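subagent[fold] <- orchestrator: predict structure for attached chain, return C-alpha cells only, no commentary.
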Amino acid sequence: MSSVPARSIARACGAALLALLASPLVADSLGELDVAVFEAVLTHGLESDESMLVLDAVTTGDPAAIGEHVELARGLVGELGAPGATLDDWLVRNADTVTIDQPLDLPVSYHLLDADERAEIFAAPEPQLGWSQFFERFRAAPGLVRLSRVGRDAGARHALVYVEHQCGVECGAGRLVHLARDDTAGWRVAGAVLVWMIE
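subagent[fold] -> orchestrator:
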C-alpha cells in the first residue's frame, strides 16, 4: 500500500481552502448592488406612458435553463461584451431565489406580487382568465416583470441580470441584460440579448 506524503496532503488542503476563500459568498438576501442594478434596468425599460410596474416579489432563479446551455450562454454574454465572470457569478447566485425585500427608487409606482396574490389571480383553470384578472387588478401595468439575481465581475464594474416580461398566454419575453458601472453615472444598460419570446 502506497502512502501519500504529508506535504502533498497539506498542499491539497491549502489549495482547497484558497479556492473556498476565493469563491464569492452568496448572500440569501439582496444587497445594495442588486438594488442599484434593478433600478437601472427597470428605469431603462420604461415606456413613456407607463405609470406602474408589477414585479414578482421573488427572483426568478434560472427559468430559461441557461445553466444547462453554458457554452451557448457564454457566446451570448461575449456578444454583449460582458466578462465571463459575470455569467459564472450569475449561475452561482441563481441556484436559489430570494425575496425582493429592499425598496426600489423608481420614477413610477410599483407593486410586488407575492406568491399568495399570484395564486389568487391565476387560480382559474384557464390561463387567459387569470391574465384578464391580472389586468383588471393592475390596469396601469403592461404585465408582470420578473428579475433574476445579479451576477457581477470581481471588480463590480459589470453586471448581468435576466429580465422576464409576461403579458399574457401568448405574450412575453426573457432577456439577459448586461450593465456597466462608471464612477459618475452609476449603472447603465450596455446591451441585452433575447433568450426567448412569445408573440
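orchestrator: received. Logging for downstream: Strands lie at 52-56, 109-113, 144-147, 151-152, 158-168, 171-182, 186-198. The chain has six helices and seven strands.
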